[in-house]
Amino acid sequence: MEFIDYYKVLGIDRSATTEDIKSAYRKLARKLHPDLNPDDKEANKKFQQLNEANEVLSDPEKRKKYDKYGKDWEHGEEYEKYRQSHQQQQRQSSAGGGSYGFSGEEFDNGNFSDFFESMFGRQRNRGQARFRGQDINANLNLTLNEAYKTHKQTFSINGKNLRITIPAGVEDGQVIKLAGQGGPGQNGGPNGDLYITFSVADTPQFKRTGNDLYAMQDIDLYTAVLGGEVMFTTMDGKVKLKIAAGTQNGTKVRLKGKGFPVYKKDGQYGDLFITLNVTLPVNLNEKQQKLFEELAKLSK
Fold first, then answer.
1. Is the dihedral of CA 286, 292, 298, 300 positive or negative?
2. Which DSSP symbol is given to 130?
């Protein structure tokens, strides 16, 4: 089996942080997505490898096993059990005993590949060849309001309806993998996987950046000068904004914890940043005009 270096696939060092992995994945996922390369088989193959690399390296436990066992990381526990059993048998056997075909030195040197091929390769070569099903890529469009809350959604893929739970906080361009939901395997082989790419559109009121939301709020000149309160509708209800006297146009107000939910982290939210837009009065009547003239004289 060809060895795929997941670090090279993502273009990162082995010392990369979780954020480095996340950033590299997003950048390449947008570049290699099948929608942008519909007739490029090589790009499609790289996209599948990219999703595999992200699935393994973004999970601390899987990454630890991958760093230790390489392409055979999924069988690491079997290897450790076999190694310990082998060493115990060697200690108990007489001189020259031990008939496993692997020396203690080979185990200590980390020669995993021969072990895995011996233990699992023979199973692959018996009888008729089994083939894994094809991976399938699909797109799912969500509104910002839909992405704000965990919900179930049904969509059709390959003639069958699939009902999935979409966690709150899913991001635009994010890809999730549904294991075994792709094309059927052949001769008893495993099914392929389904990769869903989410498209989440901003609304006229809210713009999203990461887990933070950005919005505008108009306030009249009198409230800006004298201070007061205005009502603002967030994504989960209305709140009162306190406006300080003398507020300038373009002032930004931060509402902590009123932003977007953090993906798969219950109770954690980003912040909401509101830019205040001071509106000037128009169509003044004669009395209002004179009052502004008086204010202008007083200010001088």
1. negative
2. P
Which residues, at least 6 apart from 173, have a Cβ–Cβ distance to it below 8 Å?
26, 29, 30, 197, 198, 199
How far apart CA 25 and CA 56 sit, in angstroms, is: 12
DSSP, collapsed to helix, strand or coil, labels residue 286 as: helix
Token pair, residue 129, equals 């060849």
Amino acid at 10: L
| SS3 at position 40 | coil
Distance CA 268, CA 261 (A): 6
d(CA 11, CA 74): 22
139 three-class SS: strand
Cβ contact 68:78 at 8 Å: no
Q: Which pTM does this prediction carry?
A: 0.58
Both structure tokens of 276 = 């205040």
Closest CA to 211 of 263, 289, 251: 263
pLDDT digits (tens, 9 = 90+) for 67-125: 887 777 777 666 676 666 656 666 655 444 444 444 444 444 445 555 555 555 544 44
Between 297 and 97, the more confident residue is 297
| Measured distance CA(123)–CA(27) in Å, rounded | 39
User: What's the rounded Cα separation, in Å, for the pair 67 and 63?
Assistant: 6
Amino acid residing at 296: A
Looking at the DSSP bridge assignments, the partners of residue 252 are: 275
- The residue whose two tokens read 């009123």 is 258
The two three-digit tokens of residue 67, written as one number: 């760093």
The per-residue pLDDT for range 209-258, each reduced to its tens digit, is 999 999 999 999 999 999 999 999 999 999 999 999 999 999 999 999 99
Tokens of 196: 């869903």
What residue type is 34 in one-letter code? P
Indicate the residue type of 130: R
84: exposed, middle or buried (Cβ count in 10 Å: 0-12, 13-18, 19+): exposed
